[in-house]
Amino acid sequence: GESVGLHLPTLSVQEGDNSIINCAYSNSASDYFIWYKQESGKGPQFIIDIRSNMDKRQGQRVTVLLNKTVKHLSLQIAATQPGDSAVYFCAENPPMNRDDKIIFGKGTRLHILP
Amino acid sequence: DTEVTQTPKHLVMGMTNKKSLKCEQHMGHRAMYWYKQKAKKPPELMFVYSYEKLSINESVPSRFSPECPNSSLLNLHLHALQPEDSALYLCASSQDSRANYGYTFGSGTRLTVV
Q1: Per-residue pLDDT tens for B10-23?
Q2: What is the largest CA-CA distance in chain B?
Q3: Helix H or strand E segment including A66
């Protein structure tokens, strides 16, 4: 089965509020994590990444938190806007002996309420 | 140029047809990927090319045949597909096959097999 999963398949948030999307991973050796945003009809778009030697990283309106103790990843979006409506995937890059490949979680759909 | 370009955007083909999907990037990335994505599912890895050599084939049926003519181009040749192969086919690239730099995805080809 997949080693990366999500706690909520759909999240509805009021416009202007903060959104928190959660993700659990199972491979404690994974050393790199990425959040992707996929809008309807488009490919996944890189949002933010974090390496395992960090526990927090901030971008523009987004923050990723990594809790290695419980193998949990979250994406926080500040002041959610209509353009944030999309499916969000977390992905991990577990170390392997061959070419690396990232493993995607199941995805969370973020729905913005007016 | 920071994009991955995929053509065509949409393709309808019969089960006896032969068609090709094309992917191009000019970011100097040396790893390129084909993913298949069904509706409401995360992308599933099909093939990885590293420095123009096929490095990963995720047990994909032989009716899908990848080709990497040079470091900027990636093709996916399709022959005798089945209706269940209908999906969004995504191409991605990264700096190298050690995916710790994230992937850049194209917008995909929406394939319908009739």
Answers
A1: 999 999 999 999 99
A2: 40
A3: strand A62-67
